[in-house]
Amino acid sequence: MSFKNMEEFWPFYLKQHSKPATKRWHFVATLSCILCLLYAVAFNGWFVFLVPLLGYSMAWYSHFYVEGNVPLTYGHPVWALRGDCKMFGLMLTGQMDKELKRVAKRHG
User: Fold this and answer.
1) 90 partner at 20 to 30 Å CA-CA among 18, 28, 42, 79?
2) pTM confidence score
3) Tens-digit pLDDT profile for the chain (108 aa)?
């Protein structure tokens, strides 16, 4: 399966992240990556190596044990990262529920 743009990929991404717990795990994973990256820049550059370990371990846990599917990073690593960032931003600003309704209405 290939995607031409984010608008095409986004509904697929949301279907693969349908459970609230999966979204929460991804939020914590992304936040942990951001904090670890900031720490690496400010104090100890070696912490940059923890960024993928933290991010992937939490996100993949949510796919294998919560959602029961395979992480999108296996087949679509760049699209998956873009989706994670978009979902993180929407959750951070409290807009995720509104976005889920919008996509469901459009792609029902």
Assistant:
1) 42
2) 0.94
3) 789 999 999 999 999 999 999 999 999 999 999 999 999 999 999 999 999 999 999 999 999 999 999 999 999 999 999 999 999 999 999 999 999 999 999 987
